[in-house]
Structures are given as structure tokens and as C-alpha cells.
Fold these 2 entries.
Entry 1:
Amino acid sequence: MEHLKDKVIYQLYPKSFNDTNGDGIGDIRGIIEKLDYLEQLGIDMIWMNPIFVSPQKDNGYDITDYYQIDPMFGTMEELEELIQKAKEKNIELMFDMVLNHTSITHEWFQRALAGEKKYQDFYIIRPAKEDGSLPTNWESKFGGPAWEPFGDTGEYYLHLYDVTQADLNWRNPEVRKELYKIVNFWLEKGMTGFRFDVLNVIGKDEVLVDSTGDNEKSLYTDTPIVHEWVQEMNRESFGAHENIITVGEMSSTTVENGILYSDPARNELSMIFSFHHLKVDYENGEKWTDVPFDFLALKQILDEWQAGMQKGNGWNALFWNNHDQPRANSRFGDPEKYPYETATMLAQTIHLLRGTPYIYQGEEIGMTNPDFNDISEYVDVESHNAYESLRLAGKTHEEAMTIIKQKSRDTSRIPMQWDSSLNAGFTTGTPWLKVADNSSHINVEKELAEGRIFPYYQQLIRLRKEMPIIADGSYEGILLDDPEVFAYVREKEDEKLLVLSHFYGTDYAFTLPEEFTTAEAKWLVGNYEEVPLTTEMTLRPYETVAFLLE
Ligand code: NOJ
């Protein structure tokens, strides 16, 4: 645990990071080429999305072979070179383990289809109900029913995600053994980190029942047996090695379960991703809607997770962005008018919290959602399904596109913006997903020459390493009802760190509790010039500032 606290993890999306062979798809060689850049930023570990052999129906989260690198990304030798070269720079690698489901092209599924009983037991296959309807009324998270006919057997297989992603039967000990073997294979290769995809939905019951609608997720999420299996996986794989960093992606989880997953005493995982704070711009919980974000809800959720996990000795992954989320700059700030202030305010807000910060590629240069107007410019299966549902529900093309533009997962999957040349220096070929128009002025080359966002990230990373109060201090939320400022205090021994972040684009005056302003305060870091700490404070557009109180 101690080895973890001052670390910062960089997520890169291999498909869109850097293409060196001109096929329009990022590759391992492209990552090797940019290691100096990542070293300059100061991160400790790289989480790469899956690069295993896959038909790419869900961008690599549909795996055909867990032991092979997909040739479109490169070779095993190149991966070994990457591991070695990263190690020389003290950068570790985290692999993405998709163990809830395989692609239907995986040998296990194919052999199951061919009639091999052993492999049929690897998946969740059920007969239709007596009236001939689907085994349950569950919905796939990507739209449509969660069941698909299993060949011509008359039975159905469960897929909580795309129809090509068949859920594995973790109740079968053979399956678990095979999955731990995969983790061990990559441990041997030199991976020192693992991100486990949707790990909290592996525990489906033996007998599956219809949902009443509202309770559907609870039927297969965070069931008690998941904790047993995570403990078993820990024992049988990474737990036997020192200083491995693990993070579980937890869909719709609770603080209570978050603690169980990440309390070091329980030997499950190092930390978890939870997503409630990124649903504050969903109308009635529905993602494909167009509403402004609810700031008080955002604060309340972050506070609940900070305070709650601390109380139970859990550990949070801290993040705004990833390959499934629209860019936070576009969501919670004003990247047109205040690109620097927005990006740095959001960064500081989470980098000074208790937990492990993640930076998603391009965040460190202020990348935003692109402005694509046609559904054909999107690749993601989820976006296409959503567009169709929106149109079926009566939305016009324009209305549907307004929503897709804000919510599509492709908004963050577009190519990394390296320079102002054609295709942003990402590829010399045709990129698999279009490059954003703003790459002409938001790009690494320009940022390194004259930008202020990248240096700010460098500073935040450095501060976490230099200051135990950031890595290890306690957390307390303050001004919880304030409608514009997110404020908290970290504390360690005799020191306090007060962090104030303003989430809106105008000047804003508010009153701080006296206890902070009577103390000796030292300005530590902020995205405007140094200001004194006073009872009556005014924060400027998207201002963030932190003071050390002795
Ligand atoms: C979560 C991953 O982050 C997402 O990209 C993927 O589609 C689903 N899990 C299914 O594997």
C-alpha cells in the first residue's frame, strides 16, 4: 500500500496514441517512441487498454486470445522491448484484463458452439422460459436484450455487453483457473499492474431471475461471491508478487463494496474505479440526454467517496477522464474561453485528493471533445446503438447528434494530438477515427513550447511525491453546500492543506470558516497568480488554489 500512495498513473489508448507504420492505428512501437514524453511528464505507470487479439467489435474488450498481441499493435518482442525500455525510465506497465467475458471468436466459445460440454460450462447458457421468451428480461448495457441464441441449440448465452461479448461462468472453477493463469502469464512477462474490466459483475447467481426494471443491476452487481473470487485471484496470481498495483473497474458499485474491494487487510485489490461522479449530467440516470451537470451532486458524491473510503480504509482511483467518458474539460468547464483554467482546475481538484490520480492521454495538453456532426464519423458500437434508439424515440437527427457529440465514448478515443500537421502527427495514413479540428492549436508540440497545462500537471505530480500530506493526509470536505466552490482540507500531523476549486466562469465571492483564515497560511499552488487567504475570498473563472496551514 505504501508503495502506491505517491504514484500517478497515465492511461493511454493504444489504438489512438501513436501510429508508426502508417496503418492509421496506434502501435506498441509508437508507445516506445513516446516514452521520453511520458518520462518528462513524471508519471509512474502506464495503463494500456487491451492489445490482445480481438475482432475489435468493442475496441479490444472482446478478446479472442489472451496470450497473443494483436498484430495490428505489433509483436510480443515489441511488447517485451516496451516493458524493458519503460523499466529503464522507472515507468511500470499496467495491463487491462477483461475477465468477465470473451469474444465469441474465442476458442472456448467456438468449442462450446461445436458441442463440447466442457466449454459450454465456460459460459452462461440458459434455456428459454416455458412460454418461449428469453431466459430473463435483462438488457445489455449496450442496448437490446442481454441474451442471444446459442447456435441452433434453442438455448441462449448471456452477454451483458455487446452480442459478441459472451459472459464467462465464474462459478465454474475451471474457468477461474484459466483466468488466473492468464494473469500469471502477464505477471511473468513483467507487468506490475492490472486493471480488471467490470470486475464486480462476474458474480451472477446460479438461478437467474427477471428484473423488475429498477433492480436489474443489483441482480448481478457486487454479489458477495465476487469478493471471494477476487480474494482467490489475489492468492492465486498477483498477491504472490510484491508491489503489484491493481485496480478494479466497478460498475454501479457502493462505498461499502469499494471498501471491501480495496481495504489492504482484505487482500483484494489496491483500489477501484467508481463512476457515480461522472453521471451528474445524466437526466434521471439516463446517459443519452442533454442536461447541464449538477454541481452539488458532483460535490456530494466525491465527498461521500472520499470520506467513506477513508473511514473504511479503502482507496479510490481519482479520475475525470478515460476511454469511456467524454472529456471532462468539455463537460465541467469552458475549454473555449478558459482552456488553461478549466484543465488545471479540474486536474488540481482530483490530484490533491486522497487516492491515486489517473491522467488520460491528452488531458495534460487540454484536449476536448471533437465536433463531429455525422454519426458515420463515429465508430463505437454503443454510439451507433444510442443514435438509433434516440431516432426511434422521435428525436431529429440534429437533436440526436447534439447528444451523441456530448456523450459518445469516441469523444475521448480520437487520436492523440501531437502536432499541428495533418492528422495531428498521429499517423501518416488515414486514422481509424477522425482527428479533432482543434489539433491545429491544441497539441503536444505547441504545449511543450509555450503551454501552461503540461507544466501544471508536472507540478501536481511532483507535489504528490514531495508532500506526504498529499500522498497520505486525511480528507475532510468543507463548504459542502456552496453552489460554486469545491473545497476540502487534507491533514497530516500538524499540517493542513486547504484546496479551493471554482467550477464556474465568473468571479465568485464566498466566506471561509474563520478557523482557516486565522492560521498561518502559505500559498502552495494555483492557476492564477498568488493570492492571500482571507475570510472573504473571491475566486476567478475556474480558479483553483491550495494553501498550506501550519
Ligand atoms: C468497460 C470498458 O472500459 C469498456 O470500454 C468496455 O466496453 C466494457 N467494459 C466492456 O468490456
Note: The radius of gyration is 23 Å.
Entry 2:
Amino acid sequence: MVKIKSLEEIELMRESAQIVSKTLGMLAKEIKPGVTTIHLDQLAESFIRDHRAEPGFLGLYDFPNTLCVSPNEQVVHGIPNDQPLLEGDILSVDCGVLKNGFYGDHAYTFEIGEVTEATKKLLEVTKKSLYIGMEAFSYGNRVGDIGHAIQTYIKSFDYGVVRELVGHGLGKSMHEPPEIPNYGKRGRGKKFINGMVIAIEPMINLDTKNIRHFSDGWTIKTADNLPSAHFEHNVALINGKPQLLSTFDYIYEALGIKSDEEIPFKSYL
Ligand code: MG
Ligand code: MG
């Protein structure tokens, strides 16, 4: 059952989404060559607790850490470790928080120093596909419209859309119905109605869409060991339009990036 949220509940969810957005903004300043992902994990946990929230992933389905950190060919669910990041790496950081009984869930793929043009393009296109998916989250549309929009855009670049992992409803549980795949057919699936809150999260591979599971039971990587990117926002449907609860603004502020990509999704409150 899809759980519809009241405007008051959506405001609480915005608070959770903002804390996780600020956490990634704080990490943006720390992510550089030589830094270990376990260090980032510790920083994130302290930051979240300082904001009187709880790490949302720690202990969820027995996940051992605050962050999922997935470098290069890792798609998602990587476990923090003591290996230093290297110049030219990319690092997908996925983070959850729980505050006032509601979850926030947000992800960004960072560049470590200078990355190749091909990798840069993968990140740019994956992030753009997130906003293209968000545009399809409007009154009267259905789940398949988001997936169809993302898949159609990604196809024009010949990248691989990961199918085994999907976006999801978000609320008092980290994963609520409906599932939001990054592929699909127009007009199919659950109809969107006001008060729905979802996490949209394209996971896009440079080449093959196929994935492999690590023996640690968590980490997922591309089958061809080529890079993969992941961006995730939390979005509420208000007055028939998608309204962003999370933001990349804190990351952009930390990295000195100028962007107006979120403006169309912030105008309905
Ligand atoms: Mg998610
Ligand atoms: Mg996530």
C-alpha cells in the first residue's frame, strides 16, 4: 500500500532530506585523493548525530555503516574501508537519515581530482536523467512514465540502465511501495497522486547494464568493471507537481559549482 503523506508529514520529511543533503555537502569538502571511505563514514555519522538525527542505513537490513560508498565500477551498496581514494576515481556516496520518524535517502557521485572525459560525461548524463525522471513524476502519470523517461534518455548515450535495483517510496520506512524502476513503459504501473513521496535514483553504467554481486553480500559492481554512476533525490508530489525535498545545493556550494537544475522543482511551496 502506498502511504500518502500530509503536508505536515512532508515538512518533516524535508527536514530529514535536508540533513542528508547537508551531510553530503560536508563530505564534498573531504572527498579527495588519499582519504579513506571509513574516515568519510565516521565524519558522516558524527555529523548526522550532531543534527539530532540517526544514520538511516546503519543496522538497516544489518548494513554495517552510515554510508554506502561505491568507487568506480561499484554500482551501489559498497562498504566503507581503509583504502585511500585515488586521483581519477569516482565515488558514489549514498546516505540515509532518520529524524522525527521519517527517512531521508540521498546519493551523489563525486569526482576525485581529474577524471576521464568519458567518466565525466557518464556522471553528467546520469544526473540529468534524474531530473528527466523527476519531470515525469506529475499528477495523473504513472510509475512507468518515470522509468520510460530515464531509459529513453539514457539509451541515446548507449549506457546501461541497471534493472535489478530501483527507486522507491519513502516515509516512515526507508523502502515503501511503489518501486520506481529506471526503465519502464509509458502509462503503466501505479498512478501518482498528491502526497506521494518517492526516491528517484538512476544507477547507470558506462557500458553493460549487467551487474555482479561481491561475496561480502552487499557490494554490487558492473559485470565489465567499467564505471557506474548513481544520483538520488527525494521528491514529493504537491499540487500535482514534483517538489524536491533533498538538494545538491550544499555539494555545489562546497565545490563551487553553479547550477539552476533544481529551480523547476522548488517552485510549488
Ligand atoms: Mg534509495
Ligand atoms: Mg539511497
Note: The two ends are 26 Å apart (CA to CA).
